[in-house]
Amino acid sequence: MFSVNRKNTLVLLSLVGALLCGLVSAITYQQVKQHLSDKIISDVNQLGEKIDAQLSRYSQLPKVLASDPRLLDALVTDEQSARAINHQYKQTSLLLESWASTLRADTLYLINRQGDTLAASNWQSETSFVGQNYGYRPYFTQALAGNVGQYFALGARSDKRGYYFSAPVYKKNEIIGVLALKVDLSIIEDIWNYDQVDYAIVDQHGIVFYSSEDAWLYHSLVALPNTLRKSVIASRQYGNAKLQAISKHSLLSDFQQQDITEILIPTKKTTIEMLTTYREMNKVGWSIYGFSPINAAYQYVFQALFIFIVFYLMLCLAIVSWLQTSFAQTQLALLNDKLEQLVIERTRNLMETNQELRDTINQYELSQAELKQAHSELVQAAKLAMLGELSASINHEINQPLAAMRTYAENSRKLLVKERYDAVAGNIEEIISLNKMIADIIARFKVFARKTTENNTRTAVADSIRSATSLLRNKLIKHGVILRVEELPPHLVVNIDAVQFEQVLINLLHNAIQALENAHPPQIGVHFTPQEDTVAIHIWDNGPGLDDEQKHKIFNPFYTSKPDGLGLGLTISRRIIDAFSGTLTVKDHSGGGCEFIITLPRSTEDGQ
User: Fold this and answer.
1) What is the pLDDT of residues 15-40, one digit of tens each?
2) 482, 517 in Cβ contact below 8 A?
3) Distant-in-sequence contacts of 131-138, Cβ < 8 A, 24+ apart
4) Are 40 and 277 in contact (CB under 8 A)?
5) Distance (Å, whole) CA 459 – CA 466
6) CA-CA distances (angstroms) from residue 198 to 23, 259, 281?
7) pLDDT of amino acid 451
8) Are the CB atoms for 276 and 260 separated by under 8 Å?
């Protein structure tokens, strides 16, 4: 019954939560949208006021400067020599340069009635206006008609965006020239400091000529009629720009009526929904549009929705918890009645489980003992397999003294016939010496071949290295291997069984010898890195080394690169080292080949 009621409660809470989530989303979206819209309007208005103030600063300057009598000399044509006229043009250019520097204007230039520039403040620049004809520019024709001209365009020489002001130059009420002033619109970048809002300044046709988003430059807000677009392109007001639209609207009035509009980002070839607003700048015939991605509103909606969901879930959990508590109190009385029966039943089950657990532990201990025995036998088998591989060396080491003993014995028999007893005695001494040598060789291999005991867990590193290299001496000589062993410090003692440690060393050295088949000259090195608590034994060779896959798999059981190998040598070696709390790793040697590193805990009784 409770499960049914709980299910109904959860369904009801879910439906209420979904309705409240929708309400919270709608309210948050409207509030954030209104806030962003107010911010765009405020930012755009501030930008418009600042631009008006900046342009108003320059609008009357050409009219004031055009009344300076020093401009007349360059415009009046007389019978002076060309050199004198050129000198006067230079003086006028210097005057204009001084004015431009003081007023922080981009360029000031003087134009005659034919539209030719006689002097300019940038007269020394590579993009000097001097000698250029601007008779086609609207600001020139406006000034020549007696008006103060204003015009925006890309510079014909500099290709820089600028706003142009112009005024007529009079002589006795007759217009004899035009003084023009170009303002670099980079001043807008100096006064714009709103990161969250993009702006676009457009002309009366809706063509963007200045924007915080470079991809919108020289695009139109709406699709322009073909005749108008061709006319603007022909005027070169915006260079060779194609004037493509960044929205789907065809009328500027439709664009202005939209709160949210899809705006194209040409460089990304994607559209973004943006809140838009605009401000008319009637003095110059422009409009400023502000844009802010509506995604920002969605982010605030998600945040508000997340906070509400967390709060609502906590409330639901509290309600469900209260319901469960009430139900639990009701059920507690029923549970108390059954408790005694459950205790008896569980006690019986526990006793049975305990007996099963004891049986499992006994079986585990038996399995561990068998596993330990199998591991010991596997280690012994690997050791005997190594002895089998070293059998040729054993034969060589024993056959040499046996051959010498036979020679001494045959020689002694001949000497006895000749009754040279002193020489016979010397031969017998040599035979005894060679016999001891054979006994030592056999003893070394017997020690290596015997089964490991767990009584001795302290081993001198130097002794184990000498024993291992001694067993492999003939194999090293046969393969012409140069063995470089760092001077063995006698006081270094590690916690490991000597025979097992010797088995690991022989396996690593034997593998290194086999890896040096094509090395010239073949070399094997052994050096030590003693630390405070550990000792690292490095065994390296200059063979072909191992690739990443081989280094990853080399310690896996039955993995081998030898056609007749079992792939157990390195596996057993690592398990031996692990059993004594050490590590066995492999890496690339700095001089080529590979390097195995055995790290073992250092005995606390070192050097004693």
Assistant:
1) 887 888 888 778 877 777 777 777 77
2) no
3) 132/156, 132/157, 134/180, 137/164
4) yes
5) 12
6) 30, 15, 18
7) 53
8) yes
Please name the residue that has the structure tokens 């920002």: 296
Q: Hey, what are 449's tokens? A: 């071949």
Structure tokens at 427: 């031969």
Please give the backbone phi and psi of residue 290, each rounded to the nearest 5 degrees, phi first.
Answer: -110, 140
Residue type at 65 in one-letter notation: L
> What is the longest distance spanned by two Cα atoms in the chain?
158
pLDDT at residue 598 in the model = 93
Cα–Cα–Cα angle for 135, 67, 175, nearest 5°?
40
Q: How far is CA 261 from the centre of its chain?
A: 37
Interatomic CA distance for residues 406 and 398, integer angstroms: 12
pLDDT of 540 reads 92
Tokens 């291999």, residue?
A: 445
Within its chain, how far is the Cα of 592 from the centroid? 31
Q: 3-state SS of the chain: helix, strand, coil percent to 5?
A: 55, 20, 25
* Structure-block tokens of residue 312: 């609502």
Contact call for residues 602 and 562 (beta carbons, < 8 A):
no
Residue 82, token pair as written in the block: 């060309």
Instruction: Could you list the beta-strand ranges (E) of 433-582.
Output: 459-460, 482-485, 493-494, 523-530, 534-541
In the block, tokens 């060789």 appear at 441
